[in-house]
Structure formats: C-alpha cells, structure tokens
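Q: For a teaching handout, I want to show students what a protein-ligand complex looks like in token form. Below are the inputs, and the small molecule is adenosine monophosphate. Please produce the holo structure.
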Amino acid sequence: MAPSQPLSTSTPPASPVVFESALAMQEQAIAWRHAGDDIGLVPTMGALHAGHDSLVSRARRENQRVIVSVFVNPKQFGPHEDFENYPRPFGQDRARLEALGVDAIFHPPVDQIYPPAFKTRVDPGPLGEVLEGKSRPGHFGGVLTVVLKLLNLTQPKRAYFGQKDFQQVVLVRQLVRDLALPVRIVVAPTVREPDGLAMSSRNAYLDPAQRQLAPIVRQAVTEAARAFTEGETDPANLERLTRERLAGAPGVEIDYVAVVDETTLSRPQRAVPGGVLAVAVKLGSTRLIDNVVLGAERL
Ligand code: AMP
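A: Here is the structure, written as tokens, with adenosine monophosphate included.
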C-alpha cells in the first residue's frame, strides 16, 4: 500500500527507522519538531490488527511524522496476567507499519523505558480504581506512567488512542489536563470483526468455541443501547438488559456491566446521550472489554 500524502514536503522514508534506544528516539523527535514537523504518536503493545491500523492511518493523514511505539509495558500487567505470553510478532508488525508509511517505530527493550534506577510512578487517582482499575489493581498507574514517558520521548503534537479502551482515554485526558502536557489526544472508533467482536490482540487466545461465543458481548451492549434509543434511561434497566443477554451465553463470566458518565465515570441518575455502557467479561481465561456510547452510533 502506498503511504498517504504527508502534510509537508518532507517525504516519509521507504521503510520506517526502528529505534530501540530511548535517547536516540528522543533526539530524532526533537530534531523533527525543530524542523517544524508535527509528530503523531500511536502507542501500542504490538500484535497489530486493523484497529491499530486505523489509528496509524489517521495519524499519517494528520501529521508530517508518525511514530508508532511497540512496547509490551510490564507495569500495566498484574502479577497473574499475561505479560510473559502476550504475543510479540515484531517482524509482522514492522511489515504492517512499513505498508502504512510510518516514519519511525519505537521498539525499546524494557530497560530502555525502566532502567534499574527507575522509581517514579504516575498516580491516576480515584478514576483509576473503578471498572477496569477495580479488576486490575495498578493497571492504570502503569499505563499513565508509560504514556507520560512515551510522550516525553516522542514529542508528539497529537497522540492517538482507541475508543475500545475508553477508560484509558478518560485517564490519559486527565493526565494531559492535570499536568498541562502539550499534546492533543485523538480518539478513534472501535474497529470490529464482521460479526461485531471488537478487534483485540487478545482475541488470539480464544479457542474456536470461545471465538464463536465472543460476539455476544457486542450484541448485549448493542441491545441495551437500542433500548436507550427507544426511551429507556434507567441505568439499572440498561445494565440488567445487558446482563440478561450475557447470561444466555454459557461460559461468559461477567466482570462488570456499567452505565457511566463519560468523564466522571460515575453512575448517572438517568442515562443521557454521550454516556457510556461499558462491559468486561471473561471467556475462559481471556478478558474481553467493549463499550458503546449511548445515542452516538447507528445500531
Ligand atoms: P494495545 O496494543 O492493545 O495497547 O492498543 C493500542 C491502541 O490501539 C490503544 O489506544 C487501543 O485502544 C487501540 N485499539 C486496540 N484495539 C482497537 C480496536 N479494535 N479499534 C480501535 N482501536 C483499538
């Protein structure tokens, strides 16, 4: 695929430069900024799929330089989570990013991000302790710590995140606002499989039977979002509808189903357009999350 037209006269390189050194990455980013180029950053953990591609393509359209970080961040995994087993097909990721015309891939080893003397940790505060944060203690502290470091190393004008991880977006926006970071956060819609399952690197863990069941998550939230469109605004009823639909699928274990305000993450008295219905389930040992913005999608 040919790279889309960059905004400036600077032409993206034929193949992306891979940086493993944090310092070399930062020096390159500073040089690009001094030359007047805007940088778009897409932070990822690799095992790239069409969801990541949509973020990268958007970054390509909106910036002179695009950096994609591929880093499986140990600090956002709990002690019993899948850090060791998380897929790391870097050769495939690199080919994919080359086809998308990115300028640089930041692929550091862990000690480039967390050298032995590393001590600082960003505290996400109370919004980091609900929903995902309740089930995954410490997760968002790990996320915000690495996001802040990646922003400092890559100097982006814009950073791109997916709506699929909607609580992550809320917390990254909070980080940017609270610490006055000079970056714009761009959020892109969730990319789905034809049967509605939100694309995720973790879908690879599903066995064929689980994979067949997995679209129930999207169906359940869609059904509740439809009920909202038809006039149901009681959060408890919307959550009940979602749970009932999920309960029909044996083997799907509900972690949470919650209608929340899109900025405070608290439960509203009444659901309103723009509010979010968020769901997390376990299918075997695989955790799946999804959400729908009420009143925002054609269902
Ligand atoms: P990850 O590699 O899972 O950490 O995801 C990197 C970025 O891609 C995050 O901002 C995710 O929200 C985003 N992302 C992951 N899956 C999707 C998807 N299906 N659609 C859109 N964005 C996604």
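A: Two things your students might notice: The first strand starts at residue 17 and ends at 19. The chain has two domains: 17-188, 201-293.
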